[in-house]
Design a protein that fits this description.
Number of strands: 44
Structural class: mainly beta
Radius of gyration: 29 Å
Largest sheet: 22 strands, antiparallel, barrel
Helix content: under 10%
CATH class of the largest domain: Mainly Beta
CATH architecture of the largest domain: Beta Barrel
Strand content: over 45%
Number of helices: 6
């Protein structure tokens, strides 16, 4: 009797479970009606999910009664969420996904106008926060290492300062903007590329090739525009923190709030600390500079009549960094007992954009930065101040078949330091006017004509024209031809770190004239969509740039000197690059890029390859998202070809050329908890460092003040038993990071 009772009870439980467990079925397709096989469909915050079959349908079984949120996602398409109610019956839920047109992102950098990337006559590369999350870094400098044709270059083994190379050109040829304003230049090109909280970045836009016709001096090799989020588009609160196995710690915090009914404000802060001296290459010098950095950012957006724009932003940045002998402390700062390079940097920035209350669309854009640097390199001090004020009026006027832009700008530069080369402060005001006209000459063709005129008291009139042609034969093909000129006014001590560190003498042989460049670039972009749902984007470019008056440091004439003068000849850079972005089914996407280039100079009939410039580079990233488990795997990497290095003469045992080298990273991310992401991974999987294959990296690290170096009557180093290679102390032999393999772990929280 009891056994029969248990059988009835079990049958009742099974029937109840069956009644309360239903199925969800349906289909997933595109707006065009194409099925999307291998799309992922799942119930949010549960383990229930399914994959769409080749017929475009799915089934999720054994769903208990209740309210759920269903999610359908397919790489290359916008994710869709729908609420669903399960109550004792099977449910049909169909999804139609809209293609995620990443190429239709809005860009402003190429033409100072907000246009679709596909419609821009100037090729502009756009990188979103998703790109940078694939390999988390504590600053924008490191984050650019996986961008094709862009290389973060370390300039010193001791203090690890650096700049950004575009298509093989040195860092001073790259203009870095924040929200379109020339904030990062001169001194801050070397020290100011850190401390911009990654969580505040909306996107990063990159233009390769001269852009001086719109942006003036320094935009010779290209420009990088870091666009921060508008307060109204930012999350309510966000935070991110990660640590590495080397003891690095990075924290980003931010929030937005309303201030009355007329303003929104976005606040962000970044803190980075590394206080763990490591010397894996056993030269008694820190492999990585120790740093303590804080940056505070605020951005206001004001509501005005007729939706006119008014935004105001400010940032304060402070950093204390040092590198040197392991026994160094601040008591040795500036002395000649223990070698150390110590840099205190304090800077603040203000930038804004105000649309005038007139009928026409006229904006006043402005920025101001104040940079103070207190630094010592061994027993040599370098105290410098730089102030840059910038303002411009821009009139955006559209007519039939003409899209016009008129501008007038005024730039104020102040620079002063305590070096013998700066006898008095360098103070100059540069007025400029520019005009641009984008003309629709046919349904599928546009040309862009532009010109800029600058007047510099030191150098007179500077004229920079520009031409661009865009042909779009189909919706999926774009051909762009760009030609233009650029110019750069040089301040060596603000831009050339090698002039400050090490024992080489700096020789400036003449008054330095502005550099001029002439560039032509051909770009082809192709989109390819397959019926299977796969999506490819092909992007290829070829370029040629010719420089006159080039200022290139000469390390070869005398190993104990760095000689600066205007090149009596020419400098050229030419190359090709290509990128392939691919979106596959089942949550897989990837990208591969490569650049092949020749950067050389010719003087007195002799052609030489530029120092610290690679012949080829490659980058890649592959991602796989497993939606059922909420796990994502990212694999990123880069590879660099050989580059000529600054050795100290024929006896120097270090290699004249770097090997081919690669940095690779892997990361696993979990986002199965609302508002949270957790990630962990490994950086530098191959454990590559520059010291491998070399007897040493820093020349005469054991004698940083050259106390035991002997010189002859002509100032040349004499080889001795104690100094058999005839070297002086020199940390400039650097081409890659000294950090080996390391783990990292981080958490993100975002409240939208």
């Amino acid at each position: 009797m009891l056994t029969k009772f248990y059988k009835l009870l079990l049958l009742s439980i099974l029937l109840t479970t069956s009644i309360n467990a239903q199925n969800i079925k349906g289909s997933v397709s595109s707006l065009e009606g194409e099925i999307l096989p291998y799309a992922n469909v799942y119930l949010k915050n549960t383990t229930k999910g399914s994959t769409v079959n080749e017929e475009g349908t799915y089934v999720i079984g054994n769903i208990e009664n209740g309210s759920y949120m269903m999610v359908a996602s397919f790489t290359g398409y916008k994710t869709v969420e729908k609420a669903i109610e399960i109550s004792n019956n099977d449910v049909t839920m169909n999804f139609i996904l809209e293609e995620d047109e990443a190429l239709d992102e809005i860009t402003i950098t190429g033409t100072l106008k907000a246009v679709s990337r596909l419609e821009s006559a100037v090729p502009v590369e756009i990188y979103t926060p998703t790109f940078f999350k694939r390999n988390p870094t504590p600053n924008i400098f490191e984050a650019l290492q996986n961008v094709n044709g862009v290389r973060p270059q370390l300039n010193c083994n001791v203090c690890n300062t650096g700049d950004i190379h575009i298509n093989g050109l040195e860092g001073p040829y790259t203009l870095v903007l924040i929200d379109g304003m020339p904030i990062v230049s001169g001194l801050s090109t070397v020290y100011g590329l850190s401390g911009i909280p990654n969580s505040l970045i909306e996107q990063v836009e990159i233009v390769k090739g001269p852009a001086s016709s719109l942006y003036g001096s320094e935009a010779v090799g290209g420009l990088i525009n870091i666009i921060t989020k508008l307060p109204e588009n930012a999350p309510q609160f966000f935070s991110e923190a990660f640590v590495t196995g080397w003891g690095e710690a990075n924290v980003d915090l931010g929030f937005k709030t309303n201030v009355g009914k007329m303003a929104n404000v976005l606040f962000g802060a970044n803190y980075y600390n590394y206080s763990n001296p490591i010397d894996d290459n056993n030269d008694n010098f820190t492999d990585v500079t120790l740093q303590d950095r804080i940056s505070v950012f605020q951005k206001w957006s004001f509501k005005r009549n007729d939706n006119r724009l008014f935004s105001l932003a400010g940032r304060y940045f402070y950093e204390d960094r040092w590198g040197g002998e392991l026994q160094w402390n601040k008591g040795f700062r500036g002395g000649n007992e223990v070698y150390g390079e110590s840099i205190y940097t304090s800077r603040f920035e203000i930038l804004g954009n105000y649309q005038l209350p007139v009928k026409e669309k006229v904006n006043f854009q402005f920025s101001y930065s104040d940079h103070d640097q207190n630094s010592v390199y061994g027993d040599m001090s370098y105290l410098a101040q730089q102030r840059i004020g910038f303002g411009q009026l821009v009139w955006d006027k559209s007519l039939e078949k003409h899209d016009l832009l008129f501008g007038a700008a005024l730039r104020y530069n102040y620079y002063n330091d305590n070096t013998p080369a700066t006898l008095e402060a360098d103070e100059v005001t540069i007025p400029s006017v520019f005009v641009q006209d984008e003309i629709e000459i046919a349904e599928k063709q546009k040309i862009l004509l532009g010109a800029r005129y600058d007047y510099d008291d030191r150098h007179g009139s500077i004229f920079t024209p520009r031409f661009a042609y865009r042909y779009k034969p189909t919706e999926d093909d774009i051909i762009r031809l760009n030609a233009g000129t650029g110019f750069r006014v040089v301040n060596l001590f603000a831009e050339e770190h090698a002039a400050l560190t090490g024992a080489r003498d700096v020789i400036i042989e003449e008054a330095l004239d502005p550099e001029r460049s002439y560039n032509v670039t051909l770009n082809y972009l192709k989109k390819l969509y397959l019926k299977s749902g796969m999506h490819f984007t092909f992007d290829a470019s070829a370029w040629y740039t010719y420089f006159t008056n080039a200022i290139i440091p000469d390390y070869d004439t005398n190993p104990n000197q760095i000689i600066y003068d205007n090149l009596d000849g020419n400098s050229r850079t030419k190359g090709i690059s290509f990128n392939v972005d691919a979106v596959f089914g089942s949550g897989i996407k990837g990208s591969v890029g490569a650049t092949f280039q020749d950067v050389s100079q010719k003087e007195n009939g002799v052609k030489t390859q530029q120092i610290l410039t690679e012949r080829f580079t490659g980058v890649w990233s592959f991602s796989y998202k497993h939606y059922k488990t909420n796990l994502k795997l990212d694999y990123t990497g880069n590879i660099y070809g050989p580059m000529r290095l600054p050795t100290l003469g024929e006896l120097d045992p270090r290699s004249d050329y770097s090997p081919t080298w690669s940095i690779q990273n892997i990361q696993l991310t979990y986002d199965g908890i609302d508002n949270f992401e957790a990630y962990l991974g490994v950086k530098n999987l191959l454990d590559w460092t520059p010291n491998k294959g070399n007897p040493f990296i820093i020349a005469r690290a054991e004698d940083p003040f050259d106390e035991n170096v002997q010189f002859d009557n002509e100032g040349q180093v004499v080889a001795t038993q104690e100094n058999p290679y005839a070297l002086t102390f020199d940390p400039a032999y650097v081409y890659g990071p000294n950090q080996g393999i390391r783990l990292f772990f981080g958490l993100r929280y975002t409240l939208k």
